[in-house]
Amino acid sequence: MSKYKDPAFLFYPESFLVGVMDMTDEEVGQYIKLMCRQHQKGHIPDSVIKRASEAVQEKFVQDEDGKWYNERLEKEIKRRAEYTASRRRNLESKKADKDKDRPRAYREFEEEKPIEAVPMPEEVKRKAKTLGIRIGEMI
User: Burial, 64: exposed, middle or buried (Cβ in 10 Å; 0-12, 13-18, 19+)?
Assistant: First the structure.
């Protein structure tokens, strides 16, 4: 899995409202908090899910490790991860294509480190002064 942590998941209000229609407001709060926890920290330990009402617990299934998760949310998290990964690959591919079409010398120039400024030798400064050239002044 990527080191990128997705900060959000898709939320479908109509589906959510239909799914919580028979719950109390307190149960709805428990449910949304558990879904947010699942998104941020992964599957939910038994000790946490047991604090929720029975109606809320029914919205989650147990995995092979004994932890709980909402199947729909799990599907949405995976779909979004696949989508963002495909966008990232697409962007990298476009960048590679763009670089491929540019002249080699130009690509090498961009890869070089910036040139560090060095002080002007005193001999050059004296010569410039005798010629009437002002160094370091704005034109």
Answer: exposed
Q: What token pair was written down for 27?
A: 């149960």
DSSP 8-state symbol, 86: H
Closest CA to 9 of 80, 83, 87: 80
Q: How far apart are CA 23 and CA 111, in angstroms?
A: 60
What the block records as the tokens of 51 is 């604090």
- Across the chain, which has 139 residues, the per-10-residue mean pLDDT values are 73 94 97 96 96 97 97 94 88 74 63 71 85 71
- Cα–Cα distance for residue pair 112/129, rounded to 1 Å: 34
pLDDT for the residue 1: 45
Q: Which of 9, 12, 52 is nearest to 31 (CA)?
A: 52
DSSP 131: T
